[in-house]
Specification:
Structural class: mainly alpha
Mean pLDDT: 89
Number of helices: 8
Strand content: 5-15%
Shape: elongated
CATH architecture of the largest domain: Orthogonal Bundle
Distance between the termini: 36 Å
Low-confidence stretches: none
Oligomer: single chain
CATH superfamily of the largest domain: Winged helix-like DNA-binding domain superfamily/Winged helix DNA-binding domain
Helix content: 55-70%
Length: about 180
């Protein structure tokens, strides 16, 4: 998992409520571990950086056994940073499907529906820009023009999922605008 995705995931899950590191790791794995797994060597240093920046704090609680456990909380500054990142995603968070899905996971935490709709409109604008995996003479190739069946398959699948996503984005932005 890229560090930006990891930071957003930590802030987003802690925005839903306090949790201990093991629970946070499990939630992050459930979100994207099959695509971009997160190791302890990435997670715990990321948490430490967020603590040092004043975005996350921790306190001890009784554990189920003899050991006490560390519970992580989002600070006011951490909540402000989460909301800023949700309101103003990077171009990569808009264009990369996996990163966009991480963003989408937490978008409901933005209290302003207009801000939510603005993020979705950016994604829709990106998807409506003509693009392809394959180009000929500087122009994107359509699936029907590609002789390689595997390349054609990539284009057909991308077109179908892209059309479904655009339909959903249009529906939700209309609902949010109502």
């Amino acid at each position: 998992m890229a560090s930006g995705d990891l930071t957003l995931s930590i802030l987003g899950f802690l925005g839903e409520g306090p949790m201990h590191g093991y629970e946070l790791k499990a939630r992050i794995f459930q979100l994207s571990g099959h695509i971009r797994p997160v190791s302890d060597g990435a997670l715990y240093p990321a948490i430490a950086r967020l603590e040092k920046a004043g975005l996350v704090d921790r306190h001890e609680e009784e554990g189920t056994g003899a050991a006490r456990r560390q519970v992580l909380n989002l600070t006011d500054a951490g909540r402000a940073e989460l909301l800023r990142r949700l309101r103003e995603p990077t171009d990569l968070e808009i264009s990369d499907q996996t990163r966009f899905f991480v963003l989408l996971t937490f978008l409901s935490q933005l209290p302003d529906r207009a801000d939510q709709a603005g993020v979705l409109r950016r994604r829709l604008e990106f998807l409506e820009t003509p693009a392809s995996f394959f180009y000929q003479d500087g122009k994107p190739q359509r699936a029907e023009e590609v002789p390689d069946p595997f390349h054609r398959g990539m284009l057909l699948i991308a077109r179908a999922t892209g059309e479904a996503e655009k339909r959903w984005l249009r529906e939700v932005t209309a609902e949010l605008g109502a």
